[in-house]
Amino acid sequence: MSRAPFTHPIEVRFRDLDALGHVNNAVYLTYLESARIAYWMHVTKRSGLDALDMILARVEIDYRSPLSYGEAVDVTVRCASMRRSSFVLEFAARERSAGRLVAEARKVLVHYDYAASKSLALPAELKDLLRAQDPDARDEAAP
Q1: Which of 17, 52, 108, 116 would be a feasible disulfide site paired with 57, CB 3.0-4.6 Å?
Q2: Does 6-134 carry CATH code 3.10.129.10?
Q3: What is the model's pTM?
Q4: Domain edges within the chain
C-alpha cells in the first residue's frame, strides 16, 4: 500500500526556455535533480548538502509533452527498488493546472562515501526510511 507520493513544485522560468519558447530538454534534468534533493531531505530528515551520501549513476527521461513559460510543474518522486548499495527513484512531472504528463524518468542512485571514493551498502536504517515513504519499494538481489 503506497503513501501519497512525495511532490516537489517547480515554476517554469524564462531562463528555462529554448529558442522555440518551450522548456529545453536539458532543463528537465535540473527539475529532476531539485526534486531528488528535496525528496532525500524529506525522507532522511537531513538538511544541508553535506548530508548527501549518494551519487547519480544513471538517468533515463521520456519526454511526453512540452512545457511553456508561465506553466508550473509538480514532480512526484518514489523509490521503486533497492539493492545492496543502490536504489531506483521514479519521477513523474505533470503540468500543475491540467495534470498533463510532461515527462517520466528513472534514476539509479548509489550510496556513496565521497571521502573514500567508493560505494557503500545501504544501511538498514536508510532502507527503513525509504520504505516508510514508499512501502511498495522492492528489495532486489544483486546479480
Answers
A1: 108
A2: yes
A3: 0.92
A4: 6-134
